[in-house]
Amino acid sequence: MKFSFIKSRDSRSNLLVREISYIAKMDVWKSIKIKRTFRQIRMEKIFRSSLVLVALSILVLVIAFLFTLIVQSMPSIKALGFSFLFGKTWDPVANVYGTYPFLLGTLFTSFLALIISIPFSFSIAIFLGEYYPRGWFSEFLKNSIELIAAVPSVIYGFWGLFVLVPIVRSMELKLGVTPYGIGIFTSSLILAIMIIPYAASLGREMIRMVPSSLKEAAYSLGATRYEVIKTVILPYSKSGLFAGILLSLGRALGETMAVTMVIGNTSIIPKSIFDPGNTMASVIANEFTEAASTLYLSSLIELGLILFLVTVLINLIGKKIIKRFTTD
Amino acid sequence: MPQNIQYRLGKSKAFKGFIIFLSVLCTLPLFLILIYILKEGFTKINWHFLVNLPKPVGETGGGIANALIGSLLIVFYAAIIAIPFGIMGGIYLSENKKSRLSYWCRLSVDVLQGTPSIVVGIVIYFWIVKPLGTFSALSGSIALAIMMLPIVVRSTEETLKLLPSTLKEAGLALGLPYHKVILRIILPCGFSGVLSGIILAVARIAGETAPLLFTAFGNPYFSTNILKPMQSLPLLIFNYATSPYDEWHDLAWGAALILLIWVLLLNIITKITTRRWKIQF
Question: Which of A12, A20, A285 lies at the smallest CB-CB distance from B118?
Answer without folding.
Answer: A285
